[in-house]
Amino acid sequence: MFAALAGHILQDDFLATFKPQEVANTVWAFARTGIKNEAMMTAVAERLMEDDFLSKFNAQEVANTAWAYAKLGIKNPPLMTAFANRILQDDSLSTFKNEEVNSISWAFNKLGVQNKALMAAIANRS
Q1: How many CB atoms lie within 10 A of CB 53?
Q2: Given its phi and psi angles, is residue 97 left (phi above 0), alpha (psi -120 to 50 degrees) or beta?
Q3: DSSP characters over 82-102
Q4: Alpha carbon of residue 57 to chain centroid
């Protein structure tokens, strides 16, 4: 079922029609079930980093998406930098719930990706 879903997502630029919540829910579902579809996750990462798409994600969508990549062990430093930049823009971090901050911190740690600005902002969060 998941293979068919990934195949459909990769067809005919279908991924370009996804809204942020649809992207976050999809990668979360793959990660939750432990299904690592490299082609789909690569396509999603590319989509996340184009056309300022990631700026449309809310805190939960960012956290769930970053968590999914870490859960599947997919280390993509440019994507993690994009997540950090999204979180740090416009004081977005202040909208993150504790659980979402924990998910972000865990994702960066799990993947061994360092982002000093993000970690300092998290440490200074009141």
Answers
A1: 18
A2: beta
A3: HHHHHHHGGGGGGG--HHHHH
A4: 9
63-105 pLDDT, tens per residue?
Answer: 999 999 999 999 999 999 999 999 999 889 999 999 999 999 9
The token duo for 60 is 């939960």
CA 39 to CA 80: how far, in whole Å?
A: 18
Specify the long-range contacts of residues 111-120, CB closer than 8 Å, at least 24 apart. 111/69, 111/70, 111/73, 111/74, 111/75, 111/80, 112/75, 113/75, 113/77, 113/80, 115/80, 115/81, 115/84, 117/84, 117/88, 118/84, 118/87, 118/88
Tens of pLDDT along 56-68? 999 999 999 999 9
pTM for this model (two decimals): 0.91
Residue with tokens 């202040």: 94
Task: Of 5, 111, 67, give the one whose Cα is nearest residue 57.
Answer: 67
